[in-house]
Structure prediction request, 466 residues.
Amino acid sequence: MNDTAPHDLVVHGDIALPGGHVLRGGWMGITGGRIEQTSETPLVGRDTLHVSGNVVLPGFVDAHVHTRSYIDEGITATTRAASAGGTTTIIDMPFDKPARPVNTRERFEAKVADVNAEAVVDVALYATFPPEGDLGIIADLVDAGAAGFKVSTIEVDPVRFPRIPDGRFYEAFQEIAKTGRPVAAHQENQEIVFSQAEAFRARGDTAAIDHALSRPPVAEAEAAGRLLELAYWTGARLHMVHGTLPRTFDLIQWNRSQGVSATGETCLQYLLLTMDALRELGGRAKCNPPLRSQEAVEGLWAQLQDGSIDIVTSDHSPYPLHRKETPDIFDAFAGMPGAETLGPLLYSEGVASGRIDLARFLELIASGPADVFGLSRKGRLEPGADADFVVFDPDAEWTVDDDATHYAVGWTPFHGRPVRGRVVSTWLGGCCIYQDGHVTAQPGAGRFVRPTEERAPAKTVSDTGE
Prediction:
């Protein structure tokens, strides 16, 4: 036996190390909420967790979440759902309702306090900035702990989620470049989208499928190219969110070859659903950018395999069904819940189906997002990292069920989908927060996390309500 002092917790089983190598029958020692060592030989712990038959994965990192797009969902419900899906860290978007974008230090610090009181998993935070005014706020928000800045080329709400004019982008990108933080953008050409929507409605073309048809691929690709040019000329580090088109990632790759610092993400729904889902599910399948063709879906999977796509996220943005199921699709709210299904479904459709290997899966959903946003203690099972991990049964077979989800809105676009691979338990800082279908932690178990800095001291078991 190892003759060092006992760890707080020792985990014994098949442990997925960085790079996707699985340490069969290995040991992981946890002390003070962090991983102290992994070993092929037995370790001593005050408590030991034996997980024979399962694999221990790093806690997933979901880098695109809207906890407050719907007031009744919020931080607690979203993070409870995330824990049930094996996600131990989310990065939350700044476009909070009611009309309170996180674009001042006061609002940012107030949200940090809310996270520390309400979250079940750890939370990093995006900030944003208004379409006009002093850009000194950017450095101030970085000092407060912002993991990045989210902006949009299309206006969703003039106060909460405004369009940033190109001239303002040019100035702001220069300021953000000085900080080293990524700037992430919703990429759609407003003139194309708005004029097409007006034309469709004037013709009476308001069926669910018309949402996708009225937002053509060129709207995304043009805006993506424009943002990449801005990044080229300003030196900003650009992260392209929710890409739906292979061409978007082709543009990112070409710009990388020209020296642009750029990364890109797609979302689970763009890998598993096509625009035909709008015909089947109606407004439940409405999201922006919209679902695309089968050809686009296949192209995205090919890019997952070849490394062109850096990460996969949920773009969790839940709304109650009465906001989704409207006679006119243009009246339906855009967005869908996804925090709970991200990890299990990507594993099922990716690893279990043979499309990607375990190493690529972990890059897309754990180490990749941690690297993009500077969360150095997240996404890997290695000494010094936070002891955030998932006990995962790779052979379990189950079916997604609306009634079994932990969302406040109570539905998922993946209801009825068969899945292979299931989260058995989720652990945050060495404490169990989810076990066999039940969230075991209380609000406040999670903490706000800053990029490239120390995690707050680990909570005790009693703090997490266990």
